[in-house]
Design a protein that fits this description.
homodimer; 208 residues; mainly alpha; Arc Repressor Mutant, subunit A; three-stranded antiparallel beta sheet; 7 helices; 3 strands; 53% helix; 8% strand; DNA-binding
Chain lengths: 208, 208
DNA sequence: AAGAGATGATCAAAGCTTTGATTAAGTGGC
DNA sequence: GCCACTTAATCAAAGCTTTGATCATCTCTT
């Protein structure tokens, strides 16, 4: 838990300093200390990764690799943008928003159902509901016919919060989607849908 | 931090218990305690969300909403599956794998570059490298020409780990990608690429 | 009626992530 | 040389997530 001052392998400071911007000279026969990766950037990362993996690791499926890298990156960027422009400025998180949204959609609803709908674990929902309740957005009541379950509902503040946040959220979604024509959006949605639908055909692990 | 026994609004236990499976009778004029959401499931969630939001919140862009929900869900399912079938069983995490992979790709490389390549914050990389170093997969050295920077490299164990994990990872990627034809995969990749590329045109927030 | 088993929620421990502060080191102006 | 500014990394606090354990409650079988 506490890495406490990692043990650097301290190097002797080189006698002659390089001029700013200069690169260490290449010495034939000796492995380069600092390989040339100045050309490697965020946007070229996937290309380099795929081509090097294909070259060095026989049997790799480059298209599948590229697909997953691209999908993961797109989702990450989207989440980062929405979370930092819409949700965090309001003092909430995207996960909190997702729970709030599920409760809004499903009315007074058991925590278990919220977990199923939002694709989270029950423990995660439990934790999120903890903070949402603390912040006065969600109410928790024991379920009438099942002493184990809790029913979740929105407070007035929660209703106000989800409505306002949702507008802002969708505004931002529209910006993202605006990169594509309506047809392209439909196509993308349909391909992604196919991907997730078929994930039930091989034993893809999913929640509960 | 410690929600400590949340304050349930304790309800009086109903006198007459319902038979298993029966639903509370509908009482006209009185709001239903438990709205009928039995038809709401993981797979119908997006449809319901879009249609209800469109109905109740004027001005919502349903296609953009559906796009983001679908993309987010696809990425989540993919990550969950890969993490739980490939990485966690080996004792590592996907984020750890991503750092390891970036180091493998970029050779001895500064932590800052790893953050840029993998799309993580420098603090996140710092934390991940902490555990990767503790587990003997990554080495950390002070950069020769810059006393602030650290150069990251793979240990023999790290090299072995990334190679083996990557094979397994790509095997799994192939299963996922197998839902789509090669053409469809290309299309999907290209649409996602367009989405991320265009995110620089509106002021999408991104890291560093 | 009673025990066995299933189920819903929560807790606990560990890890990852974020933002903002801090520390150390390099850069540039004078 | 000195001081302000910038930059790399790390720390700190808070929050989210995961798995597995625990507790309470419900259900089923006998």
């Amino acid at each position: 838990m506490n890495p406490r001052r990692t043990n650097f392998r301290r190097l002797v400071r080189p006698a002659a300093r390089q001029v700013s911007g200069a690169r260490p000279a290449y010495t034939p026969g000796v492995p380069q200390e600092q390989p040339d990766n100045d050309h490697l950037h965020f946007w070229s990362f996937i290309d380099h990764a795929v081509s090097r993996a294909t070259r060095e690791l026989p049997g790799v499926d480059p298209l599948a690799m590229r697909l997953v890298l691209t999908l993961h990156r797109a989702a990450n960027m989207l989440v980062y943008d929405l979370e930092s422009t819409v949700h965090r400025p309001r003092g909430w998180s995207w996960p909190g928003f997702r729970v709030l949204f599920a409760v809004w959609l499903a009315g007074p609803v058991e925590a278990k159902k919220v977990a199923e709908l939002s694709g989270m674990s029950r423990a995660a929902v439990s934790a999120l509901v903890g903070t949402l309740e603390r912040d006065g957005l969600v109410t928790k009541e024991r379920a009438p016919h099942d002493g184990r379950a809790v029913h979740l509902g929105l407070t007035a503040a929660g209703m106000q919060a989800i409505t306002s946040a949702f507008r802002s959220h969708n505004e931002r979604e529209r910006e993202w989607a605006g990169s594509l024509s309506a047809d392209e959006q439909e196509t993308l949605i349909s391909l992604l849908g196919k991907l997730t639908a078929h994930s039930t055909h091989f034993e893809a692990k999913h929640r509960a």
